[in-house]
Amino acid sequence: MNLSTSLGTYELSTPIIAASGTVGSVVDFSDVIDFSLYGAATAKSVAPEPWKGREPPRIAPVDTGMLNSIGIQNPGVVSWVGMYAADLAEIPTDIWGSAVAHDPNGFAAVVSAMDTAGVAAVEVNLSCPNLDGVPFALDAARSAEVVRCVRDATDLPVGAKLSSDARSISAVASAVAEAGADWVVVSNTVMGAGIDPETRRPLVSGLVGGYSGAPIRPIAIRSVLEVARDVPGLPIVGCGGASTSAHVIEFLLAGASAVALGSVHFKTPRIGKRIIKDLEKYMDRHGVVSISELIGAYEPW
Ligand SMILES: Cc1cc2nc3c(=O)[nH]c(=O)nc-3n(C[C@H](O)[C@H](O)[C@H](O)COP(=O)(O)O)c2cc1C
How far apart are CA 202 and CA 83, in angstroms? Predict the structure, then answer.
């Protein structure tokens, strides 16, 4: 049974990836999570300079999902490299750095610094819903400009993290692929908001935040289907509301080559172990020899 998959020429030992912002720096979670079960683990996004993030409240449960309005609190890339570079090699999977910035040159500066820290790939977070202004990922041309700048700054594989809030996620995916992205992550949180009737206060200080967890999975699956159909050949990391092996398989069947697990880590940090075990059982039951057989293999009615 072969659990390995690939994003173009980049190989992953398993199809599950830890999503950015849900396992800290990765190093911080290495005592709790067995990262050897993951094909890769993505660190929390880092900016060119320190950001203090938004005021509390930053996180709120909403029905079966959650809202977050963290605003990418981070120490800035220079401190990040100093704090974590030495420990990254100890993690038993590939670490992906995640870059965020207000402009293309800022993204390039973060990626250049991360390149020296021993990350295996970089994710360009074009889709943070908690920054002022319109997220890059809602605009194909602006997204491509960032990716072009990052592409010039590194030889590492580059993934672009997109948003299902885009009017056409396929148009953004196509633009970033042309600009040099090796794969796309489909997708980040969906923009959402909530208000407490008792206090009349918004649930998160930023008013609008990122909605994640189970309820966004159908939206993410729809986005994966669209990108797989419209930009054939562009590798996809599915992301949004996955918490079981069945969800991982659903993303693969829709056309993703790997699947990032996010909010589920807050409730069940050791979820990777169960998912891998259940994936193996499914493959056994369905006579699937290699996980790659499942990619895009849904049967239309
Ligand atoms: C508290 C929190 C913090 C997050 N921080 C980041 C981040 O720094 N960078 C990023 O690209 N995505 C970030 N995300 C988005 C997740 O990586 C993921 O794309 C999103 O939550 C959807 O997946 P899920 O429904 O499985 O959680 C964050 C999500 C949550 C809930």
Answer: 35
20 CA → ligand 1 middle, Å: 6
Instruction: Quote the ligand 1 centre to 301 CA distance (angstroms).
Output: 33
Does 128 participate in catalysis according to the annotation?
yes
Q: What 3-state class would DSSP assign to 233?
A: coil
The residue annotated as part of the active site, out of 128, 166, 175, 294, is 128
Task: Give the Å distance between the CA of 17 and the centre of ligand 1.
Answer: 12
* 229-279 tens-digit pLDDT: 999 999 999 999 999 999 999 999 999 999 999 999 999 999 999 999 999
Q: Report the DSSP beta bridge partners of residue 213.
A: 65
pTM of the prediction? 0.98
> What 3 state SS string does 166-231 have?
CCCHHHHHHHHHHCCCCEEEECCCEEEECECCCCCCECCCCCEEEEEEHHHHHHHHHHHHHHHHHC
Query: Does the Cβ of 213 fall within 6 Å of ligand 1?
Result: yes
Our measurement of the distance from residue 38's CA atom to the centroid of its chain's CA atoms, rounded to an integer in Å, reads 13
Q: Which atom of ligand 1 is nearest to the CA of 161?
A: 11
Amino acid occupying residue 113: A
CA distance from start to end of the chain: 29
